[in-house]
Amino acid sequence: GDVAAQLPSLDEELLLRAEAALAEGNLDRCGSLLAAAEDSANPRWQLLMGRLCMARQDWSKAAEQLEQAEYAYPEAVALLESCFRELGDYKRAYEYACKQK
């Protein structure tokens, strides 16, 4: 049988470590840990990837990830406002600013 398929996912642990690496400013480690995770459709993964992309000033990729995490993580709204402001999309930035009220 497929042994790998029977093993529990390490994602929970990987995301915890990725979050810690991001908090320490270790962007490469954070990226490696996120890359190792299986479920990139997990909103927590998307939030972390969005924050990592912001730290790398990759605003459009950050916005793309954060928009997917927004329903699960209300703090993504303020991050999205920043991303769209950085991208010069003031209409969308304003929409996200209004959502925070």
Low-confidence stretches: none
Please give the alpha-carbon distance between the first and last residues: 53 Å
Provide the residue-averaged pLDDT: 95
Backbone shape: elongated
Assembly status: single chain
Which labels suit this protein?
single chain; 101 residues; mainly alpha; 71% helix
3D architecture notes:
The chain is mainly α and 101 residues long. Helix content is 71%, strand content 0%. It has 7 helices and no strands. The chain has helices at residues 3-6, 11-23, 27-36, 43-55, 59-69, 76-86, 90-99. Helix 5 (59-69) packs antiparallel against helix 6 and helix 6 (76-86) packs antiparallel against helix 7. The longest helix has 13 residues, at 11-23. The protein is elongated and about 50 Å long. The termini are far apart. The mean pLDDT is 95.
Short description:
The chain is mostly helical and 101 residues long. The protein has 7 helices and no strands.
Q: Mind sketching the topology for me?
A:
Blueprint: H1 3-6, H2 11-23, H3 27-36, H4 43-55, H5 59-69, H6 76-86, H7 90-99
